[in-house]
Specification:
The complex is a heterodimer of chains A (337) and B (341). With 337 residues, chain A is an alpha/beta fold. Chain A is built from twelve helices and twelve strands. Chain A has an eight-stranded mixed beta sheet, with helices on both faces. In chain A, strands 2-1-4-5 form a four-stranded antiparallel beta sheet. In chain A, β7, α8 and β8 form a beta-alpha-beta unit. Chain B is of the alpha/beta class and 341 residues long. Classes of the chains: A alpha/beta (337), B alpha/beta (341).
């Protein structure tokens, strides 16, 4: 780095710092996301994995400022998109960011598509709004987009209503909508969970192709460790609202060092089963997130736990270059054989 | 064609006893239209399938949504009346018996459902849920019932002390254990498990699968394991049947199916499973199927996979391939697969 630079700050595409979201419910305070920080650069594909209730979706919705307030509250943190904090800008500006800079697709396309409007209307709406296109231009662009995501006879299909599309086609339609304004980041929240495996394979191929063609960064949220392995470069593992391990895919799958990651990978069925072998299973259940917990949230289920885990919360610490683990015993933890 | 299928499923090995024999089973649902609810067509949910289940084994039934795997399970146990075909369980034809005889046979086949939230009555305590079958069949009452229930809860790894609680107080994994305990109440020989782990978190799935295997070993149960998660099916099943649009397209033992699938649909389905290993994923060649599943109300003429099959030839568009034994204990319905036996 040049010595003449006064502020040698490298600007990242996305920098999430200490993001904390809570929900104030009648049952108590839900600590949904606690102190999540990470960085993404252009063209990165980040996988976010974890089980239900681990905060993976809420963290994305917080970035998009889509959580209902109240009961939700963003307690702290910054979401820097090219240096600009999304949590500080006006709702008006945020509306422009959504769709134009960060787009999001969801698990169930049927709930995100309006059933009484044609697919074409829903795609062109964003184009007219964000890009100031007229009817004709937006129609052409929408056709191009449907074509891009592999929907045959795109022009005619613009007049269809969502129910006339199959599940896989709806998800393609959603992707087309998400891409309509050339976003820099696409957040995909379990986009293939509701789909059959052969259709899931189609959608993943499509997203890979589009990523390489359009160069956008992707945050892919899922509980399926298999999907991420073939798609992402980096993986964030979340547990109880916290980021507990992050590293390149090869590190996370090859040499995981958090007992939860190790257990999660171990509980997946192997390709070749030894006769009589059992699946590894993590004992107990994920914690509910009501109320503050002291110590490591994984401690009650952890086979490596020591006294310190009960009292002190481990922070995400460097294990090796590019690999961070939040565990006091990380040196001792290794992948199951 | 029908004649040819008769007796084609010879026992895979003599010492194995056939517990369930499904022959040419069909289940069509009527499509009704208009004021008079006139039948205008049929959804062929299960269309002429045959297979045997051997005592003590786990047979996997896999396929995508709408392939008829759930309907198959429900028709076997006669939650749906079969349209045609025969289901014999321990020599008794389930499709024709009624009344008392049906009740007595049914207690030997139980079912575990996908959604542990929907399949347990929220107004009943765990004690009543698990104990209900005991009461209905007059097996046990009062104190004896309570003992029975507590034994069953113990068996599935639940603390009997919680038997007076209600389903909402339990997590998904625990509810599935409750469902299992209920299914075991009448000492069944066979359990049909319809997507028993699909609604559970990954770390809980392994717990339930291990429990099911333990119970199988302890009690000598036979499982029909219906699922769309192919890697879990591979883990638990001894033999696997792949279904597509109401038909079984391939049936063989686990190793053969996963190592050398013959039917183009099995091949595509298996290649579509994501493998949790980035190094394997990098080198993998996927068969990406074009298009979507056709509607079972209007299946394609000929082989019903021909609209998506990457290898379809002329004959596939004209006539339906027979489901034949292409190698010992390996059945497949495809013109491209030549018998080597």
């Amino acid at each position: 780095m040049s010595t003449f630079e006064v502020h040698p700050v490298q600007e990242h595409l996305l920098e999430v710092k200490d993001l904390t979201t809570r929900f104030y419910t009648e049952e108590g305070v839900v600590y949904a996301v606690s102190g999540v920080s990470y960085i993404m650069d252009e063209g990165d594909t980040l996988g976010v994995v974890g089980e239900s209730g681990c905060g993976k979706s809420v963290h994305a919705l917080t970035m998009m400022r889509l959580i209902p307030i109240p009961p939700g509250k963003i307690e702290s943190g910054e979401v820097l998109l090219q240096g600009r904090d999304l949590l500080k800008i006006s709702e008006e500006e945020m509306r422009h960011v959504r769709g134009a800079q960060i787009a999001m697709i969801f698990q169930d396309p049927m709930t995100s598509l309006n059933p009484v409007l044609t697919v074409g209307y829903q795609i062109t709406e964003a184009l007219k709004l964000h890009q100031g296109m007229n009817e004709r231009e937006s129609q052409d662009r929408a056709t191009e987009l449907l074509d891009l995501v592999g929907i045959p006879e795109a022009r005619q299909r613009l007049d269809d209503y969502p129910h006339q599309f199959s599940g896989g086609m709806r998800q393609r339609g959603m992707i087309a909508m998400a891409l309509s304004c050339n976003p820099e980041i696409l957040i995909a929240d379990e986009p293939t969970t509701a789909l059959d495996v052969t259709i899931q394979a189609q959608i993943i191929e499509l997203v890979k192709r589009l990523r390489d063609k359009l160069g956008m960064a992707i945050i892919w949220i899922t509980h399926d460790l298999g999907v991420i392995a073939g798609l992402a470069q980096r993986v964030n593992v979340m547990y109880a609202g916290r980021l507990i391990e992050t590293g390149s895919v090869k590190m996370i799958y090859g040499t995981p060092h958090h007992p939860y990651t190790v257990g999660l990978l171990g509980s997946l069925p192997k390709i070749h089963r030894e006769p009589g072998s059992k699946l590894y299973s993590i004992s107990g259940e994920p914690p509910d997130l009501i109320g503050v917990s002291v110590g490591c949230p994984f401690m009650p289920r952890c086979t490596y736990a020591v006294e310190r885990c009960r009292e002190e919360l481990p922070e995400l610490e460097l294990y090796e270059t590019g690999h961070f683990v939040a565990c006091w015993e990380k040196e001792k933890v290794s992948k199951l054989q | 064609m029908l004649g040819k299928r008769e007796g084609e499923q010879t026992a895979m090995s003599e010492e194995n006893e056939v517990i369930l024999r499904v022959e040419h089973l069909k289940k069509y649902f009527p499509i009704r239209r208009g004021v008079f609810r006139k039948v205008v067509g049929w959804v062929k949910a299960v269309d002429d399938i045959s297979f045997n289940v051997y005592s003590g084994e786990t047979i996997g039934l896999v396929g995508e949504s709408g392939c008829g795997k759930t309907t198959t399970g429900r028709t076997i146990i006669r939650l749906y009346e079969p349209t045609e075909g025969k289901v014999s369980f321990q020599g008794v034809d389930l499709a024709t018996i009624s009344g008392r005889q049906l009740r007595q046979t049914r207690r030997k086949i139980q079912m575990v459902f996908q959604d542990p939230y929907a399949s347990l009555n929220p107004r009943m305590s765990i004690m009543r849920i698990i104990g209900e079958p005991l009461e209905i069949y007059g097996v046990a009452n009062g104190k004896e019932k309570k003992e029975h229930v507590s034994h069953l809860m113990h068996l599935v790894g639940l603390n009997p002390a919680v038997m007076n609680r209600y389903p909402h107080e339990f997590s998904g994994g625990q509810r599935q254990r409750i469902g299992l305990a209920r299914s075991l109440a009448l000492n069944p020989d066979m359990i049909i498990c319809d997507e028993p782990i699909s609604a559970l978190d990954v770390s809980i799935q392994a717990q339930v699968i291990n429990l099911m295997e333990e119970l199988q070993e302890k009690l000598g149960l036979t499982y029909i394991f219906i699922a769309h998660d192919l890697s879990m099916v591979r883990h638990i099943s001894r033999r696997v049947a792949v279904m597509y649009l109401g038909k079984i397209v391939e049936l063989t033992d686990r190793e053969t199916l996963y190592d050398k699938p013959l039917h183009p649909y099995s091949q595509a389905l298996l290649s579509a499973i994501p493998v949790p290993d980035p190094i394997v994923e990098e080198q993998r060649q996927r068969i990406i199927l074009e298009g979507d599943l056709p509607s079972p109300a209007n299946p394609p003429v000929g082989c019903n996979f021909n609209t998506r099959c990457p290898r379809a030839i002329d004959i596939c568009l004209e006539a339906e391939p027979d489901f034949v034994e292409v190698a010992p204990d390996h059945y497949c319905a495809c013109y491209l697969v030549k018998s080597n036996g």
